[in-house]
Write a structure and sequence with these properties.
The chain is mainly beta and 232 residues long. It has a domain of 145 residues. Strands 1-2-5-8-11-14-17-20-23-26 form a 10-stranded parallel β-sheet. A 9-stranded parallel β-sheet has the order 3-6-9-12-15-18-21-24-27, with no helix packed on it. Strands 4-7-10-13-16-19-22-25 form an 8-stranded parallel β-sheet, with no helix packed on it. The radius of gyration is 23 Å and the shape is globular. It holds the Pfam family Bactofilin. Keywords: Ribonucleoprotein, Ribosomal protein. This is 60S ribosomal protein L36-like protein. InterPro entries: BacA/B, Trimer_LpxA-like_sf.
Length: 232
């Protein structure tokens, strides 16, 4: 049996769409409420153990209520919302997808354009976002972190590897990296930034840097005191 054969689609598990689920599985809902319940469970856990943890990969193709826990990878398709937490070997969100809960994975997390995670992200591998991604929680990973243009993180970013932000990224917390840190143009970090090295692009704000006109940091502000420096 190939991986593609084992891969299955979690169409939905919410109420009101069990009949559609039964059709996708070539099963009938004529057996009443018991048959409908079994159908919904079969779609999610046809290869699961007694704890309801799936063995294979899952693709979530419709809005879904409840937590998802699988040993494989979870892929949430575009414009789909998961109202619950996700625990998996890896997590992929396509454009405009949303997880209303935490992500816990031993692998990587890839978040597409305009996707949202309403909770903390804990990962063993890299965490990567495309543009305009919102994470309402912390990022804690053993790997690297790459935050795409105009992404927002409402919490600390902790990485065993490097941390890279693209343009106009906002981090409402601190950055602590085991590797190098590069903050792209217009990045704002409310807390401290630490790593093997820290490189900043233009117009980067860290902590209280925005009131640092009296400090040695004259990035873009040197002109302000130019006249007085030439006075003798």
């Amino acid at each position: 049996m190939t991986d593609m054969t084992r891969r299955r689609t979690l169409v939905a598990v919410g109420t009101g769409i069990v009949g559609a689920l039964a059709g996708c599985q070539d099963l009938s809902a004529d057996g009443g409420s018991d048959a409908e319940t079994d159908t919904a469970e079969d779609i999610f856990s046809d290869e699961s153990d007694d704890d309801g943890v799936g063995d294979g990969d899952i693709t979530v193709a419709e809005d879904t209520d409840g937590d998802i826990s699988v040993e494989g990878t979870v892929e949430v398709l575009a414009d789909v919302e998961v109202d619950g937490s996700v625990e998996a070997a890896g997590v992929v969100l396509e454009e405009d997808a949303e997880i209303d809960g935490t992500i816990d994975t031993g692998g990587t997390v890839d978040l597409g354009d305009d996707s949202e995670v309403d909770g903390d992200i804990t990962a063993g591998g890299d965490v990567r976002t495309a543009e305009d991604v919102e994470i309402d929680g912390t990022i804690d990973t053993d790997g690297a972190v790459v935050l795409g243009d105009e992404s927002e993180v409402d919490g600390d970013v902790t990485a065993g590897g490097s941390v890279t932000t693209r343009t106009d990224v906002e981090i409402d917390g601190s950055v602590d990296a085991g590797g190098e840190v590069y903050l792209g143009n217009g990045t704002e970090v409310d807390g401290d930034v630490s790593g093997e090295s820290v490189e900043e692009g233009d117009d980067v704000e860290i902590g209280d840097d925005d009131d640092s006109g009296d400090d040695d940091d004259d990035d873009g502000l040197g002109w302000f005191s130019f006249g007085s420096d030439d006075d003798e």
